[in-house]
Structure formats: C-alpha cells, structure tokens
Design a protein that fits this description.
The protein is an alpha+beta fold and 192 residues long. Helices cover 17% and strands 25% of the residues. The protein contains five helices and eleven strands, in the order E-E-H-E-E-E-H-H-E-E-H-E-E-E-H-E. The strands form three sheets. The protein has a six-stranded mixed beta sheet. Strand 6 and strand 7 form a beta hairpin.
C-alpha cells in the first residue's frame, strides 16, 4: 500500500515543489529536512493555510528518489538548475547542490536558498523526490473536502495516516487533471 506524506508549505515560490520541465521535484524543504523515507509509488501532498483555511497546493506520486549529487548531474534535470538571468521559471530551479570528490557540498547560485545555513540544512539528508505524475494548483489551490482536513497536520511531515482515508484522498486527487494548473502563490518574481 503506497504511503502518503503530507505537510504544510511555508512559501509556494515554485522552488519546493518545483513542477516545471516535465517533472515535479522536491529537492529542498520539509519532507527532505525531516528525512522522509519515501519510495517509488508513495505520495507527497502539500497544503497552505490561507485566510484560516487549508488549501491543497499539490500532490505527486514519487517515481524516483535521487541523491542530490546524482540529481545535479542527471541530464534530465539540467533545466532545473537555477539561471538567475533567465525568466522566473528558470530562476526558481531547485537543482543547485553538487558534491566534490572529497564529499564536500557546493551550493550553486540560486534564488531562494542562499548561504551556509541552507547548505547544511538542505544536504543533511541529501535526496530529491521526483514525480512524473503530479497535480500542481499554485494560486488556484483548492479547499480539500472536509473529510481530508485531518491529513493536513501542523509542523513537520505526517506519514501515519489511516490507510483508507489516504487511499480516498489519492482517488480524489486523481479526479483532477494532472499537471500544472496555475502560477505559484508566493514567488516574488511573478507578477500577481
């Protein structure tokens, strides 16, 4: 039975999750920092709180879990390397960590995770989750049915859900069109 990992998104900038270039990826932020041990077939879902309501922002079915250095060097994900001179989508890339031969990490130029504090935090559990099946609603985030509000939780991640409720949530998500529905909520580079 696939597991469901849920969490609250602090900022929906297009960085985490990054639903662009044909893959939804999560290379930094809460599930990674919490050391989520997700496998292929498991699901991740992110929610925002807005106006005292929970909004469903995205879900992805994990198709791969890659070490950050492999993610950086994999040609499939080169478009996800941040280009600070590019358009807003290129600036919010999440593929900006690589390892030297001696194992030390290099933080490449990026828009949102700048400095040693982020380098330590992001590489403590150095994995990227990749999904080819995903639903990203961004600014069109929707209020989930009330029966699913118990899945949302608070700080950190939640992975211990009632299996039946998690399955019903996945079925509800699958009633929506896959892919990108709208722009991010909080990206300072995107005009409202």
């Amino acid at each position: 039975m696939p597991r469901l990992c849920t969490y609250l998104i602090t900022n929906d900038t297009g960085l985490a999750p990054n639903p662009y270039w044909g893959y939804c990826t999560l290379a930094v932020c809460t599930p990674n920092h919490q050391g989520a041990r997700l496998c292929c077939g498991d699901w991740i879902a992110g929610f925002l709180t807005r106006d005292r309501d929970y909004r469903f922002v995205y879900a992805m079915e994990v198709s791969e879990r890659l070490h950050l250095d492999h993610y950086f060097h994999d040609p499939r994900f080169h478009a996800k390397r941040p280009d600070l001179r590019g358009d807003w989508m290129r600036r919010c890339g999440d593929n900006f960590y690589s390892q030297a031969d001696d194992g030390t990490w290099k933080q490449h130029r990026n828009r949102f995770h700048i400095g040693a504090e982020f380098l330590v935090k992001d590489t403590r559990r150095p994995f990227a989750f990749v999904g080819t099946r995903f639903w990203y609603f961004g600014r069109d985030a929707i209020c989930p049915p009330e029966r699913f509000l118990g899945l949302v939780g608070g700080r950190g991640i939640r992975v211990k859900h009632d299996e039946r409720q998690a399955m019903q949530f996945r079925e509800w998500v699958e009633t929506h069109r896959e892919g990108i529905h709208a722009l991010p909520n909080d990206n300072p580079d995107v005009a409202v």
